Amino acid sequence: MENVGVCDEFVNLKATELRLGLPGTEDGGEEERQKVSCCKSNKRAFPETEKDIESTGKTKPASPPKAQIVGWPPVRSYRKNNIQTKKNESEGQGMYVKVSMDGAPYLRKIDLTVYKQYPELMKSLENMFKFSVGEYCERERYKGSEFVPTYEDKDGDWMLVGDVPWEMFVSSCKRLRIMKGSEAKGLGCGV
Amino acid sequence: MNYFPDEVIEHVFDFVTSHKDRHSISLVCKSWFKIERYSRQNVFIGNCYAINPERLLRRFPCFKSLTLKGKPHFADFNLVPHGWGGFVQPWIEALARSRVGLEELRLKRMVVTDESLELLSRSFVNFKSLVLVSCEGFSTDGLASIASNCRHLQDLDLQENEIDDHRGQWLSCFPETYTSLVTLNFACLEGETNLVALERLVARSPNLRSLKLNRAVPLDALARLMACAPQIVDLGVGSYEDEQDSESCLKLQAAIRKCTSLRSLSGFLEAAPHCLSAFHPVCHNLTSLNLSYAAEIHGSHLIKLIEHCKKLQRLWILDSIGDKGLEVVASTCKELQELRVFPTDLQGGGNTAVTEDGLVAISAGCPKLHSILYFCQQMTNAALITVAKNCPNFIRFRLCILEPHKPDHVTSQPLDEGFGAIVQACKNLKRLSVSGLLTDQVFLYIGMYATELEMLSIAFAGDTDKGMLYVLNGCKKMRKLEIRDSPFGDAALLADVNKYETMRSLWMSSCEVTLGGCKRLARKAPWLNVEIINENDNNRMEENGYEGRQKVDKLYLYRTVVGTRVDAPPFVWIL
């Protein structure tokens, strides 16, 4: 009895729920609601920064998915972000890898499952570390850039990001390293 | 009373510092009003739209410190859209034009721009203290202005703000001759920090008492900073992550041992447990501990730390500490006054990290407890009744059961009786947040017993308008009432319009209030700003034929002496 009552409440809640997505976009609405609940900033309806992408992740809860209510539980976005990221990591959801950049004093962690393809990943890394790699092309790799993104694969070898199909990359990448300067020249710039 | 010259009366007034008391003094007679006006040093404005800068300056021409609050509380939970308001710029402009010798500015939930900060830094020669809490709209460029221009700055305290981080050069903007720093809190900055500039700044700040670092400050830098500032009282640790360098840890331990004045510890944003023990030597002196961001530290390590903290008065922690951990707190921290337990599992329905047992243990073990914020998955009336018996001294009681409408998990009853016991026992209760399954009955109790209540937060509670009416009629000291997703409508809203003149504000979202009701209210009470916040612009409410009965998404009303504000964005409709 109780459970039925509670479910009814949830159905009603869904009707009164506030959605930041465009009217008529069911899926867009869902995602937006998730993002709003986890989103660091209430400035933007459509999160753009890598921070937001990081924190939304693809949370697929093991228990039956509950309707995400805007602004509930009443925890500040600032705090929510911190918790959400850690939770995803500890439950093995998402594929978190460490990212280091030569010269930067501390490492970052990103969830690879958030991205669909290389350009998205690169843009996110560029935002995070404030650098630019330029475009990737088969022949000349990351032409003209001082920075070259590399990764350590399952075999322990250091590879250039972008060589293998995306899915293969995601499944084999253990950590990322953005190389800089002379070390990078050997790999990236086709010189 | 008027046999004394004004200077004598003024001197007596100097000893009266609380805003409430100053306000009371000013009402005694015309002469006292005048003296109080000219001698008021600290002005507190709880709602920046209740008054405007011009009127502020007319009444208080000589103040030194201004506190301003902008957005309503629920803005913290993304319920107020971006651009709603709370801009500090007009205030700073007006103060800059006047002759006020501003020394301190404290802002909460306001929009601050780099332009505002620049103007602030250039306009007040003796500016000493900037405290920004939950603000947004500025970048580290604004901080650079403050650092460059405020020669006498003592406090730069940034708490949980949204700051656009253009990467670390603002710290180098403090001149080499600048040595008056007392408080520096930049924990909320996300980007890289210029460690060299930071270390030099700390080294030349002998008065530094409070230092809160962001996550970009690694372990070895922390050790060096602490070695430079052994006089530190309040420390916010940055990042401990990675490169498990035992040498850094040893250096840190040595530095920590010298910090005999350390009383408050926070941060641990990315903390590795093995370094937590480095702080054990100073734990016995700690009065405040904030581990609520330390999601990576396992409960057992937290407990080991807390076991050493016998003098703790304030503890902020995650629910990963568990009921067992709370029992340790209860038996160790006999001086505890404030406890906040934050959730790690935001979804609800996960492992029950803390339950009603933890809350009961704390209430039994900590006789001085007066403020609590407790997130949990489940609660019972019996537990709340026990808590009320153990702790009749609560001033703030905020309980958040993560799942809306959840009843007593043992009896399946609403939690009316439990909260009823709390308000009945706690005669000094000023702030209350309720949750779980609640009927109108709980509000009957609140209206009846919570005579000192000033702030009440309601979510997913109540059955009919009667609930809200009990509160409005009963709680004579109510100042802020915020309600979401509860079935209260026009009848409750309109029952006693004059009540709102005694309150700072009312927030109602996803309730049963209609546009017609709001319009009637606005007509009856021209001294109120009745704001309808409607995010769907294309949903122009007045064109809808059934407007009278159309439900209002978000209603925010507040008393004001300066009428409709002029800076409202298009999605805010002020009736």
Number of discrete helical segments of chain A: 7
* Main β-sheet description of chain B: 21 strands, mixed
Rounded average pLDDT of chain A: 65
- What does the largest sheet of chain A look like? 5 strands, mixed
Measure the end-to-end span of chain B: 46 Å
Q: Bin the strand percentage of chain B.
A: 15-25%
Rg for CA atoms of chain B: 25 Å
What is the CA-based Rg of chain A, rounded?
Answer: 20 Å
Pair with the most extensive interface?
A: A-B, 46 and 59 residues
Element order, helices and strands of chain A?
HHHHEEHEEEEHEH
**Overall 3D form of chain A:** globular
Biggest sheet: strand arrangement of chain A? 2-1-7-5-6
Sheet/helix structural class of chain B:
alpha/beta
Question: What would the average pLDDT of chain B be, to the nearest integer?
Answer: 92
Q: What separation lies between the terminal Cα atoms of chain A?
A: 72 Å
| CATH secondary-structure class of the domain at 96-185 in chain A | Alpha Beta
The CATH superfamily of the domain at 96-185 in chain A is Phosphatidylinositol 3-kinase Catalytic Subunit, Chain A, domain 1
Quaternary state of the chains: heterodimer
What keyword list fits this structure?
heterodimer; A: 191 residues; alpha+beta; Ubiquitin-like (UB roll); five-stranded mixed β-sheet; two-stranded antiparallel ribbon; 15% strand; disordered N terminus; B: 575 residues; alpha/beta; 21-stranded mixed β-sheet; two-stranded parallel ribbon; 20 helices; 23 strands; 19% strand; nucleus (chain A); repressor (chain A)
What does this structure look like?
Chain A: Residues 21-69 are annotated as: Disordered. Chain A: Residues 45-57 have a biased composition (Basic and acidic residues). The complex is a heterodimer of chains A (191) and B (575). By secondary structure, chain A is an alpha+beta fold. Chain A has a domain at 96-185: Roll (Ubiquitin-like (UB roll)). Chain A is built from seven helices and seven strands, in the order ααααββαββββαβα. Chain A has helices spanning 2-16, 26-38, 50-56, 77-90, 118-129, 166-172, 182-188, and strands spanning 96-101, 108-111, 136-137, 141-142, 147-152, 158-160, 175-180. In chain A, the strands form two sheets. In chain A, strands 2-1-7-5-6 form a five-stranded mixed beta sheet, with helices on both faces. A two-stranded antiparallel ribbon of chain A has the order 3-4. In chain A, helix 3 crosses helix 4 (77-90). Chain A is globular, with a radius of gyration of 20 Å. By secondary structure, chain B is an alpha/beta fold. Helix content of chain B is 32%, strand content 19%. Chain B contains 20 helices and 23 strands. Chain B has a 21-stranded mixed beta sheet, with helices on one face. In chain B, helix 19 (490-494) links the parallel strand 19 (480-484) and strand 20. The radius of gyration of chain B is 25 Å and the shape is globular. The two termini of chain B are 46 Å apart. Classes of the chains: A alpha+beta (191), B alpha/beta (575). The interface between A and B is large, with 46 and 59 residues.
